[in-house]
Amino acid sequence: KAGVTQTPRYLIKTRGQQVTLSCSPISGHRSVSWYQQTPGQGLQFLFEYFSETQRNKGNFPGRFSGRQFSNSRSEMNVSTLELGDSALYLCASSWTINTGELFFGEGSRLTVL
Amino acid sequence: AQTVTQSQPEMSVQEAETVTLSCTYDTSESDYYLFWYKQPPSRQMILVIRQEAYKQQNATENRFSVNFQKAAKSFSLKISDSQLGDAAMYFCAYRSANSGNTPLVFGKGTRLSVIA
Known about the structure:
The complex is a heterodimer.
Chain A: E1 5-7, E2 10-13, E3 19-24, E4 31-38, E5 42-50, E6 53-57, E7 64-68, E8 74-78, E9 87-94, E10 103-104, E11 108-112
Parallel strand pairs in A: 2-11
Antiparallel strand pairs in A: 1-3, 3-8, 4-5, 4-9, 5-6, 7-8, 9-10, 9-11
Chain B: E1 3-5, E2 10-14, E3 19-21, E4 24-26, E5 32-39, E6 46-52, E7 60-61, E8 64-69, E9 74-79, E10 88-96, E11 105-106, E12 110-115
Parallel strand pairs in B: 2-12
Antiparallel strand pairs in B: 1-4, 3-9, 5-6, 5-10, 7-8, 8-9, 10-11, 10-12
């Protein structure tokens, strides 16, 4: 059974640009969560989607957005990139919400110059 | 809001020895889940062990066990017979079991080194 797949794995952007990150969950999983991981702040929750609906949103500015498609794949977008957006973005899936047992991808490493 | 605190940024253990990682949490709820996740240097995070708050018995998974003290809001992880492959970041996490769709909340992590 394939795991959670995140693309791209690494990317470099400059300030002011935008970026889209993609996440394909484990087959059969309908919930997708996104986390931002930095050395200083640790793991911070961004969004959680279930059946194409955003069920939870973390305390991030409106520049961070996301969506989920009917096949449960998810994308997140960050517009007007800032240096502080440099981080590892982790996607996790689970078969439903509120289970806590998340299956993580390897992450997308974003560097903003 | 619920918070999770891991007071040990770094720990080290000799191979084959036992180590305990600490975690405390703050919540006003009575029904919740607690987890320990492991993130090896390759970065993919995996679940190590899970504990339901309503269960008094401490969870065990092979060499990994927890000491769950609900009244003290403490949830420590014990790794027995440590192996080189145990070297990783370990994150303690909390999630409410109630409806309301609360997300999984992580502590800042403990970096465990295993010395051969």
